[in-house]
Structure formats: structure tokens, C-alpha cells
């Protein structure tokens, strides 16, 4: 049995996204042993889930809004006792084999931190492959070319992986999370807490890699102006371009890569709607 738990971070305006996120977790080929939702101040998040049943124990931690994703992730990781932690935002719809992929790769390489693919190009929308009534973002802008047999990453992704280690969908061992002392809770709002975490991890001898098998759709959500306001920031991560001390890998199994490419070329692209920014 895989010993895997999931932390879901959520906040105001993402209540419906959270419900679908948990539904996608319920459809995993390998179910998590437990799930903790950490809610940064939504008004209806827990209420939205009332009456719903899930095939795993679900813990719900709510607090008044403070725009601190670091605190949310640390609280969730502290709550879980599983060997492997998967950390996702409530906007993420994992493909049914994502948890299994994370568990298999981390079983072989427990000193790695793996970052899954997820749609994060804000101008490209498509119906969800899993819930066609939902419109999602499918294109991960860390990747620059979707060929018939492979996906090409941005060149700098292989040089400076910490700068591309986006925290919406990633996994690592709980022991490693504890050794790194979690996320820096001085960072609030849009301050780069995820990049800081990856940078510190690499500095302490860990390796950051990217896993296509753990691909996911991303549900759009309202912008939290307070989260994005510069004046709300405390300590902010400063980007740096220190070359990776190890070869960075874009990992996949032949099956996982084929599944993602099939969805891109035969489902998402034919139905893509382009929305230009205002």
C-alpha cells in the first residue's frame, strides 16, 4: 500500500473549485490515506462540502484570511502522518493516475521533490476532460512546444529549476519536508514562497525535477486583490539564476506521456478558446 497524503490549500472564491478538486482526488487509481484542506478564510468552503462523502478521511482547517500560503502548507503537512506528501491548490484537477505516479517515483528517489504539470496559461481555456461542464486551463506555460511524441520545456527550466518550481502541484517525502523546515511563513501574498522553498531545498542537497505523469487541469478563480497587492507583502523571495548543480530531468513514463499528449492534441487543442487579457 502506498502511504500518501494530500494537502489542499484553498481560500475565498474557490469553494466550487474545491468540491471538484476533491472529486478528482476521489477518482484516483491509488487513493490517499488522508486529505487535509487548509482554508485561508473562505466563507463557504466547509459548508460547500456538507453532505458529501469521500473515500478517504478528510480534515478541514479554517482560519481568518491572512494570505499566507506558507502557513497553509505547513499546517497541512503537520496534520498529515503519511510518508509522502502531495501538495496542491484547490484549483487543481489531478488526472486519475497522478498520485500513483508521484508515489512510484518518490519511492525510488526519496530525496527528490517532484513538480507536476498543470495548466497555467491564463489565455487558453477548454472544457475539462474530467468534468466537461467546467472550463479549465490546460496549457502549462513552463513548456514551449507540444509535439506529437514529446513536450519541450523552456530552456531555462533545465538550468534554474528553482525558478520554475511552482507550488500548485508538487510532492515530496514528509521527512524531507520536515528537514527543510517547511515554507517560510514570513512570505505572504504573491511573494514567491514556492520558489524560495525549492531554492533552499537545492541548496541543502535535494534535487528538484518535473513529472509529466502527474499532470492536472487548472480551474480559473477570481483574483484576490489583497493577495496580489504589493503593500501586503512582508518578506519577498528574490529571484536568482544559480545554475543547477545536477542534471534536471523532465520525467515521464511512456504511458503517462502518451496520455497527456493525447489529451492535448485530441481533446484540449481542438476545443481551445483564446481569451486575451484586458
Automatic annotation (TrEMBL):
Residues 7-111 form the Glycosyltransferase 2-like domain. Keywords: Transferase. Residues 157-211 form the Galactosyltransferase C-terminal domain. It comes from bacterium (Candidatus Blackallbacteria) CG17_big_fil_post_rev_8_21_14_2_50_48_46. This is Glycosyltransferase 2-like domain-containing protein. GO terms for molecular function: transferase activity. InterPro entries: Galactosyl_T_C, Glyco_trans_2-like, Glycosyltransf_2, Nucleotide-diphossugar_trans. PANTHER family: GLYCOSYLTRANSFERASE, GLYCOSYLTRANSFERASE 2-LIKE DOMAIN-CONTAINING PROTEIN. Pfam families: Glyco_transf_7C, Glycos_transf_2.
Amino acid at each position: 500500500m502506498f502511504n500518501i497524503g494530500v494537502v489542499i490549500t484553498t481560500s475565498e472564491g474557490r469553494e466550487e473549485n474545491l468540491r471538484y478538486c476533491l472529486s478528482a482526488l476521489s477518482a484516483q487509481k491509488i487513493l490517499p490515506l488522508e486529505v487535509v484542506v487548509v482554508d485561508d478564510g473562505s466563507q463557504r468552503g466547509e459548508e460547500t462540502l456538507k453532505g458529501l462523502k469521500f473515500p478517504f478521511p478528510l480534515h478541514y482547517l479554517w482560519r481568518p484570511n491572512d494570505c499566507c500560503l506558507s502557513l497553509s502548507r505547513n499546517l497541512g503537512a503537520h496534520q498529515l502522518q503519511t510518508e509522502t506528501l502531495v501538495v496542491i491548490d484547490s484549483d487543481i484537477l489531478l488526472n486519475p493516475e497522478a498520485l500513483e505516479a508521484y508515489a512510484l517515483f518518490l519511492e525510488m528517489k526519496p530525496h527528490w521533490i517532484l513538480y507536476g504539470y498543470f495548466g497555467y496559461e491564463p489565455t487558453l481555456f477548454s472544457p475539462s476532460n474530467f468534468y466537461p461542464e467546467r472550463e479549465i486551463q490546460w496549457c502549462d506555460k513552463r513548456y514551449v512546444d507540444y509535439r506529437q511524441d514529446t513536450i519541450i520545456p523552456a530552456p531555462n527550466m533545465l538550468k534554474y529549476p528553482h525558478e520554475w518550481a511552482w507550488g500548485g502541484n508538487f510532492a515530496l517525502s514528509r521527512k524531507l519536508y520536515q528537514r527543510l523546515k517547511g515554507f517560510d511563513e514570513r512570505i505572504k501574498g504573491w511573494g514567491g514562497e514556492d520558489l524560495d522553498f525549492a531554492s533552499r531545498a537545492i541548496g541543502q542537497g535535494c534535487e528538484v525535477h518535473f513529472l509529466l505523469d502527474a499532470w492536472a487541469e487548472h480551474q480559473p478563480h477570481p483574483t484576490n486583490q489583497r493577495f496580489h497587492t504589493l503593500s501586503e507583502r512582508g518578506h519577498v523571495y528574490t529571484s536568482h539564476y544559480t545554475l543547477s548543480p545536477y542534471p534536471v530531468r523532465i520525467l515521464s513514463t511512456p504511458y503517462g506521456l502518451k496520455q497527456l499528449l493525447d489529451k492535448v492534441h485530441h481533446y484540449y487543442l481542438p476545443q481551445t478558446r483564446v481569451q486575451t487579457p484586458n
